[in-house]
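Question (not urgent): is this output format expected?
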Amino acid sequence: MKTGVAMLVITCALLMAGCAGMESRQPLQTVASVDLTRYAGTWYEIARLPMWFQRHCNDSKATYTLRPDGKIGVHNECVTDRGKLDQADGVATVVDTNTNARLAVTFDNFFARLVGPSREGNYWILDLDPDYQTALVGTPDRRYLWILSRSPHLDDSTYRHVVAKAQHLGFPVSELIRAKRSPSI
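Got this back:
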């Protein structure tokens, strides 16, 4: 019996020591305000964290359109490694109407119908330059991150600035994958 109690105490101590070494992260803050009319349009992926649903994508871009019902149409497309156009259409709903910076994006597929939309949103605008030319978008759990630009290419200085912002927010920037671009883009 004493051995069992001793093992339990040791296990708890090890768990607590492990937790003490874990990085505590502050909740993510979005930008203060997003003008959805200015945000609408086409955005090119410059870099992203690894994600299975984009593992074969190149030349990725997203186009956002304002809908009459107040929601946002989402059209994502990329060219696969095999040269085929892959497209997905969805709908974004503003979750935080005070800022318009937190959105819940859903796509019409089995998984989305099974899980349903996120209450806190899964598309958070974390950084946005004043001219709406570059954006840092992520999820509150820091599993997904995109660096977006109105242009297919982003100068190195701006890229480094946005990556530094992502690192400051606690994203694993060493895992970022730079977008692959066709020579014609």
